[in-house]
């Protein structure tokens, strides 16, 4: 037979362990920036971290969205969220493509080891 003290101690241990797991878990955040491509945002072929240099060529398109789609399709880029000088990879590339070239609010969980946001939603900023 288990004593009341043992049951109480077990219950306290389980509650404390559960709280530790919750606090160690990832939490959802909101990020605001522009959906673009890794090639331009990471200065692979752009000194200004923008689409300006590529769009001067005109063969990649005339808008940031066209440039980003070109860089992803033909130059090995991925869609990213650029927040000033920070660049976050987005795990949901299909949803990101729908908002490419737009200023957007991305809600999701950031993995700081890979700098990737597990995207829950993307909304354009008007």
What does this structure look like?
The protein has 126 residues and is α+β, with helices and mostly antiparallel strands. The chain has a 5-stranded mixed beta barrel. It has one domain. It starts with a helix and ends with a strand. About 10% of the residues have low confidence. It has 5 helices and 5 strands, in the order H-E-H-H-H-E-E-H-E-E. Strand 2 and strand 3 form a beta hairpin. 37% of the residues lie in helices and 30% in strands.
List the helices and strands and how they pair.
Layout: H1 4-24, E1 28-37, H2 38-41, H3 52-56, H4 64-74, E2 79-83, E3 86-90, H5 93-98, E4 103-111, E5 116-124
Parallel strand pairs: 3-5
Antiparallel strand pairs: 1-2, 1-4, 2-3, 4-5
Spell out the key features of this protein.
37% helix; 30% strand; alpha+beta; globular; 126 residues
Rounded to the nearest angstrom, the distance between the terminal CA atoms is 65 Å
Low-confidence stretches: 12-24
Tell me the fraction of residues in β-strands, as a range. 25-35%
* Overall tally of domains: 1
Percent helix among the residues? 25-40%
* Sequence of secondary-structure elements: HEHHHEEHEE
Looking across the biggest beta sheet, what order are the strands in? 1-2-3-5-4
């Amino acid at each position: 037979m288990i004593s009341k003290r043992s049951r109480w101690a077990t219950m306290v241990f389980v509650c404390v362990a559960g709280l530790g797991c919750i606090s160690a878990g990832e939490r959802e955040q909101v990020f605001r920036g522009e959906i673009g491509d890794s090639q331009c945002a990471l200065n692979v072929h752009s000194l200004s971290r923008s689409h300006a240099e590529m769009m001067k060529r005109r063969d990649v398109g005339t808008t940031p969205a066209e440039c980003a789609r070109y860089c992803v399709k033909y130059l090995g880029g991925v869609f990213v969220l650029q927040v000033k000088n920070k660049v976050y990879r987005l795990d949901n590339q299909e949803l990101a493509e729908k908002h490419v070239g737009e200023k957007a609010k991305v809600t999701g969980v950031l993995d700081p080891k890979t700098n990737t946001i597990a995207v829950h939603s993307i909304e354009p900023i008007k």
